[in-house]
Amino acid sequence: MSSTSIRSCKKYLLSYKDSSNSTHQIGFYARDAYDCLMLAREFNSFIHDHPNSVTRIQQKF
Fold this sequence. Notes:
This protein is α+β, with helices and mostly antiparallel strands. It has helices at 33-43, 45-49; strands spanning 10-17, 23-30, 54-60. It has a three-stranded antiparallel sheet.
């Protein structure tokens, strides 16, 4: 993600399931849901290796 002001970003909650089928949630500030997914892949090695494990990306208000 390029350098973007935090004011232009929205808060997203990304949910994913690990190999033991446990659900986890991570919060990110991103421009859109796609950026949220890209940030998650960058900062979480499990999501990077298993991108289909993501079950939901929800914008929080």
